[in-house]
Amino acid sequence: MKTTAYHPQTDGLAERFTRTLCDMLACYVVDEPEEWDRYLPFVTFAYNTSQQTTLRDNPFYLFFGREPVLPNDIKINRNFEGNENEHELYYRKWRSAQELVREHLFKAQAKQKRYYD
Predict the structure, then answer these.
(1) Domain Integrase catalytic: where (predicted)?
(2) What's the helix, strand, coil split of the chain in %, to 5?
(3) CA-based nearest residue to 22, from 43, 42, 7, 41
């Protein structure tokens, strides 16, 4: 979809993300607002690994097809080795999750259209 340049009202999705990002950053930079860029990687990771209402899954999983390796996973020294067919299983689960997300997005768009109309 094309939008008019320099008119943020025409791109609601980007505006909503920006608002969420600013709200999340505000929790960290209360004492040092000029240091907001130091917290950006942590905040974006938190955003990408949290479940989204519309998607009903986290963006990290939908993009990479696996759950993220968190510091706690490394600390307890989990064994990440698998058998040779495991990649096929992950791929099927990932594709299934993407199909499910498409359905959720379609339903959410229809719901938002009903509210708008």
Answers:
(1) 1-67
(2) 65, 0, 35
(3) 43
Do 61 and 105 reside in the same domain of the chain?
Answer: yes
pLDDT of residue 83: 60
Q: Which two tokens stand for residue 50?
A: 């949290």
Distance CA 47, CA 33 (A): 20
101 Cβ neighbours under 8 A, 6+ residues apart: 55, 56, 57, 62
Biggest CA–CA distance in the chain, Å, is 53
Per residue in 62-111, pLDDT (tens digit) is: 888 788 887 777 767 665 555 667 767 777 877 887 788 788 888 888 88
Is the same domain home to 44 and 98?
A: no
